[in-house]
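Quick bug: Phospholipid scramblase output formatted oddly.
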Amino acid sequence: MLLTRKQTCQLGILLSIHRQHSKIDQILIHQQIELLEVLTGFETNNKYEIKNSFGQRVYFAAEDTDCCTRNCCGPSRPFTLRIIDNMGQEVITLERPLRCSSCCCPCCLQEIEIQAPPGVPIGYVIQTWHPCLPKFTIQNEKREDVLKISGPCVVCSCCGDVDFEIKSLDE
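Here's what came back:
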C-alpha cells in the first residue's frame, strides 16, 4: 500500500508524538508572563512551555485569540491553543468554544476538543459539574469516557504548583 505525501506526513507526526509521550512520565506547564499584561492588566495571548520531569522543554503552546475576545470574555473566552514541538511543527491543536464557567450554570460547562494532527479530533475534555472542585472527564474521539481529572478546592498558583490528579473512571 502506498501512502500519499499528506498521509506520510500525518503518520510521521503521530509517531513523533508517540515517541515524545513514551518518554514523558510527568508534564509541567509553565505560563510565560507577559510584562505588558502585568503592567497594564490588558490581556495578551497566553504562551506556555511544556516540560518533562527533568525540566526539559518538550513542547511550546501558544493561544490564538483576538484582542476583543480576550479582554471581554476573560477566562471563559473561546480559544485555539497550538502545541508546537521543538522542531517548530504544530502537532496538537486544542479548540475551546465560548462556554460558561459558573458552577450555577451546569448546562453549559467548559469543553475542549483535542486534535492530533491538527484537524483530526482524537479526544475531548469535558468539565463535570461540582459545586467546589474543578472536575473534568477525558473522552476519546468517539466521546466515550476514558479518564477523570480532579483538582484542588482552591486553584491558586501564587503559592506554588497546582496539582491535578488523573484517575481511572472508577477512581
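Actually, after a second look the formatting is fine. The mean pLDDT is 77. Closing.
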